[in-house]
Specification:
Helix content: over 70%
Order of helices and strands: HHHHHHHHHHH
Distance between the termini: 27 Å
Structural class: mainly alpha
Largest sheet: none
Shape: globular
Number of domains: 3
Strand content: under 5%
Radius of gyration: 25 Å
């Protein structure tokens, strides 16, 4: 497989040498605007009919606590109603998130193919099969969680044995035993979740190019494409870290300088520069945000290039194996 630098160069050429950057950005803005509008509309409807979710109830609880009032649930019926409302809200959120992801990946696939035919309309193809996409999202999440829990259980079992032996030898206290078990549960679970997520990372690209196949088939195909390439993708992601630091830098430096100036001016001229500081901070935030958008587009196109290379290399290997088999 090509080096990270070569794949990044391809992504850079696409982003700076064509109009695909603007097309991806436009589709992303429209799709996320639809998602936000749906969530805000749902929240408005809930408020209009007097239905609370657990999230809105906790917010109301915190607001009441600041006023010195203890807000509690009136009845089990109310708790059940909030549970159903929260479940429905989560269902709608993940449904539209799946449509958004499918639309963005569709645009990225068209980008690496340089296929401008229907580039805008195709981003809304997820509305034709929303529940199929929702099941794909759910299945990926279920598999990641199951693998993480499995490794957490194994790590906890080993941690329990190790901590019990160390405790019997008087080398750890009960509190330290709990910390050790927690670490041996959490660390393997996190590592497993990362590895499994890397295996499934190309699932949406497979789905976009094979819309009729099922969720399991898409995940299986992603695992095939990522076989022996997980570390490569991890390094590829890390190769963008300098760009993300660059995006954060203007705001971080400005915040540090403004904070130092504000601290230095505290006292005799405490009100001398607050308005100027606010303007400078807003300007730095806008600069960081613009650089950040550019970097996100750059990284997104880079991952699409990685998919193209992984797919091409896998097909070449299969072709060589088939050719060798026919010769034999």
């Amino acid at each position: 497989m090509r080096s990270c630098k070569e794949m990044r160069q391809d992504a850079w050429n696409i982003l700076t040498g064509s109009k695909w950057g603007w097309k991806i950005l436009l589709n992303g803005i429209v799709l996320y605007a639809i998602l936000v509008a749906v969530l805000i509309g749902l929240e408005f409807i809930f408020e209009s009919v007097g239905i609370q979710t657990w999230s809105s109830f906790r917010e109301a609880q915190l607001a009441a606590k600041r006023s010195g009032v203890d807000l509690t649930i009136a009845s089990g019926h109310e708790a059940l109603r909030m549970t159903f409302a929260s479940g429905f809200s989560t269902f709608v959120e993940y449904l539209f998130q799946s449509i958004v992801v499918f639309g963005l990946v569709t645009t990225l696939v068209k980008c690496i193919k340089d296929d401008s035919n229907g580039w805008f309309a195709s981003a809304f193809g997820g509305f034709k099969r929303p529940f199929d996409l929702l099941w794909l999202t759910a299945l990926i999440m279920i598999k990641v969680v199951v693998w993480a829990l499995a490794f957490a259980f194994i790590g906890g079992f080993i941690g329990g044995i190790v901590s019990a032996v160390l405790r019997a030898c008087g080398m750890v206290t009960e509190k330290q035993m709990g910390v050790l078990i927690g670490l041996l549960c959490g660390i393997p679970a996190c590592i497993a979740a990362i590895i499994v997520s890397l295996r499934y990372v190309l699932t949406w690209y497979v789905k976009v190019e094979n819309v009729e196949i099922g969720a399991n088939a898409c995940i299986t195909r992603s695992c095939e494409l990522m076989r022996g390439r997980k570390w490569k993708l991890f390094l590829f992601w890390l190769s963008y870290i300098g760009w993300f630091i660059l995006a954060i830098l203007p705001f971080a430096l400005t915040a540090g300088v403004v904070g130092a100036l504000s601290a230095a001016s505290a006292g005799a001229q405490a009100d001398a520069i607050p308005d100027e500081c606010s303007i400078v901070m807003i300007g730095a935030f806008v600069v960081s945000m613009l650089i950040g958008i550019f970097v996100v587009l750059y990284a997104a196109i880079g991952q699409a290039v990685f998919y193209r290379d992984a797919k091409a290399e896998t097909c070449d290997v299969k072709a060589e194996i088939e050719a060798g088999g026919s010769e034999a």
